[in-house]
Write a structure and sequence with these properties.
Blueprint (H helix, E strand, L loop, with lengths): L15 E3 L9 E11 L7 H18 L4 E12 L12 H17 L9 E6 L8 E4 L2 E4 L5 H12 L4 E7 L4 E6 L17 H7 L12 E5 L12 E5 L2 E8 L5 E7 L12 E4 L15 E4 L3 E8 L4 E5 L1
Parallel strand pairs: 1-5, 2-3, 2-4, 4-6, 7-13
Antiparallel strand pairs: 5-6, 7-8, 9-16, 10-11, 11-12, 12-13, 14-15, 15-16
């Protein structure tokens, strides 16, 4: 799947490092090479990684409603380093230098990285403060590849930013601390349930969603299944846009995320911030009969909630 390379710089994070990325609309077959590189130890098996990438392909295929899929090759363990490979810095050049021996070992083993859309270097014997780093179409993993880690880092190569969270969001500022990867429902945060409606719209997996301002009832379908109904409501405000989506599993409720385009690290999509306490209840969703109110702006009430759709009252 050909995508135009784009570039960005971002800060060191607790679990992942964004340096540069490529992507936008992602459809068709995504060719991925996973290079297992080591100085000697083999902390997990090739079969473990192959099982994980099968799960990742199923995840991407389901999330995209069959519009995207992964074709992944996994190398055997390759002797690439003489010792701890290091962690590099926060630049493309420093990270590329870290994985250069792994790239050379893969080429010597007959793997041509230029034939792939994305190349993931899973590096053993690494003792870094981050779990993954993404720059361009290349990824460095310092931990065993897991479903969440693979879908997270590939999401970055697709052009997605992090899925953030905050206790609450006022009319113009965040209430309290923002957790950079705190969204428990998206792999771009800390979850592995599914990408959000906002992320799927960015990737072109669902059509552009309706922007609303009229006080009336709207019907929403969950973005986890293909539907001809709206799968999110977008409410434009002075500071950005609110994305409201309905989830029917493992709970039935509305999720509220705020997207501020000014906070984007170009060319990554602007991060969406999930409100983790939209009501007085200790949960990050609005249940049937409950409302979320943004002072001096709007109020949204979930009036009906079924396994396939919801009705919300906007005013």
């Amino acid at each position: 799947m050909a995508r135009t390379p784009l570039y960005a710089v971002a800060a060191l994070l607790a679990t992942t490092l964004l340096v540069q990325s490529a992507g936008a609309v992602v459809k068709g077959e995504e060719r991925v090479l996973i290079v297992l590189a080591t100085a000697g130890s083999k902390p997990y098996t090739v079969a473990d990684v192959q099982q994980t990438v099968r799960e990742a392909n199923s995840f991407i295929t389901a999330a995209s409603f069959g519009q995207a899929r992964l074709r992944v090759d996994v190398t055997p363990w390759l002797s690439a380093f003489n010792g701890n490979p290091g962690c590099g810095g926060t630049t493309n050049r420093s990270l590329a230098a870290v994985v250069a021996p792994a790239k050379l070992a893969a080429a010597s083993a007959g793997y041509d990285a230029s034939r792939y859309d994305d190349v993931v270097y899973a590096v053993a014997d690494s003792h870094c403060g981050f779990h993954g780093a993404t720059w361009g179409n290349e990824v460095m993993l310092t931990r065993q590849p897991t479903l969440q880690l693979i879908t997270h880092e590939l999401g970055h190569t697709f052009g997605l930013g992090h899925a953030q969270s905050a206790d609450c969001l006022g009319a113009s500022r965040t209430c309290g601390r923002t957790d950079e990867t705190g969204d428990p429902f998206s792999p771009m945060g800390s979850g592995e349930l599914d990408y959000s409606a906002y992320e799927k719209a960015v990737l072109g997996w669902i059509r552009p969603q309706p922007h609303v301002n009229a006080a009336k009832a709207y019907v929403l379908a969950p973005p986890t299944s293909r539907s001809s109904l709206a799968q999110a409501l977008v409410v434009d405000v002075d500071e950005g846009a609110w994305w409201i989506e309905y989830r029917a599993q493992p709970f039935r409720g509305l999720l509220f995320r705020f997207v501020d385009a000014a906070r984007a690290w170009s060319p990554f999509a602007a991060p969406a911030v999930l409100v983790t306490h939209p009501t007085k209840a200790s949960r990050p969703w609005v249940a049937r009969g409950e409302s979320y109110r943004l002072p001096k702006s709007f109020k949204v009430t979930l009036t009906k909630a079924s396994a396939t759709q919801a009705e919300v009252r906007f005013r």
